[in-house]
């Protein structure tokens, strides 16, 4: 619930009240506008799967509307299966927002060497795109989150925990994708998340054979980070491409 509350405070609008142009649309009820706002928060990742949302009272205060309007909007989102009420616990964002690959296909792809290289090629395209748009569209809060994620990667690496390090890299990629402000790209990354995380872990296991290679990978990732936070889209994309190209090259030689 804390994360959702923070998401509300860090919304795209400068005011916590409903957008003025929507309020003036006489064809829309307040609950309809709220429904659209909540859906946008879900799409752009401010509301995360499985999280508890604030109470009706808190939401009514935040949006400066009646609790009845909040209640009606929530009911509509429940009908769409975007929200789920749990008796005695509250209302939650559905934990099935992003449907990952089905388990048999996931296991097949994650265990096939050829698929691992295919995934690296896919990451080349996706991470280049997300890095470009993150640099172009990200705000100061986005960059702060990305930097914190990067620090976590370094901390886990220093501890020699590659499992936690791979999870931290995945969270870093999610944060970069959120900064890119592209809801389709975010859905693709979330859907591929289990597969990507396992791919990252396998890459780390192979890189353990030569620590100097891992240092180069770290350097590339830092170049991506610096380009994004310096708002240099082309440099961010090129750095991401160089990063993935290097990983593919060394893994091809190690296999």
From TrEMBL:
It holds the Pfam family FCD. SUPFAM superfamilies: GntR ligand-binding domain-like, Winged helix' DNA-binding domain. PROSITE patterns: HTH_GNTR (PS50949). Residues 28-96 form the HTH gntR-type domain. Keywords: DNA-binding, Repressor, Transcription, Transcription regulation. Signal peptide: none annotated. GO terms for molecular function: DNA binding; DNA-binding transcription factor activity. Transcriptional repressor for the pyruvate dehydrogenase complex genes aceEF and lpd. This is Pyruvate dehydrogenase complex repressor.
């Amino acid at each position: 619930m804390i994360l959702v509350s923070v998401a509300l405070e860090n919304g795209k609008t400068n005011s916590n009240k409903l957008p003025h142009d929507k309020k003036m649309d006489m064809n829309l009820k307040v609950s309809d506008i709220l429904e659209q706002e909540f859906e946008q928060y879900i799409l752009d990742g401010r509301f995360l799967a499985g999280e508890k949302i604030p109470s009706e009272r808190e939401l009514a205060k935040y949006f400066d509307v009646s609790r009845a309007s909040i209640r009606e909007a929530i009911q509509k989102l429940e009908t769409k299966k975007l929200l789920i009420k749990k008796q005695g616990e509250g209302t939650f964002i559905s934990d099935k927002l992003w449907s990952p690959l089905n388990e048999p296909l996931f296991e097949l792809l994650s265990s096939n060497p050829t698929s691992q290289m295919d995934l690296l090629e896919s990451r080349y395209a996706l991470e280049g795109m997300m890095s470009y748009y993150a640099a172009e569209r990200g705000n100061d809060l986005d960059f702060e989150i990305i930097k914190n994620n990067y620090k976590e990667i370094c901390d886990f690496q220093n501890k020699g925990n590659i499992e936690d390090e791979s999870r931290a890299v995945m969270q870093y990629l999610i944060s970069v994708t959120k900064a890119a402000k592209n809801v389709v790209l975010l859905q693709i990354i979330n859907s591929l998340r289990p597969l990507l995380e396992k791919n990252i872990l396998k890459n780390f296991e192979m890189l353990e054979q030569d620590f100097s290679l891992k240092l180069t990978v770290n350097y590339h990732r830092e170049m991506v980070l610096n380009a994004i936070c310096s708002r240099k889209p082309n440099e961010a994309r090129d750095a991401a491409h160089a990063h993935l190209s290097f990983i593919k090259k060394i893994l091809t030689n190690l296999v």
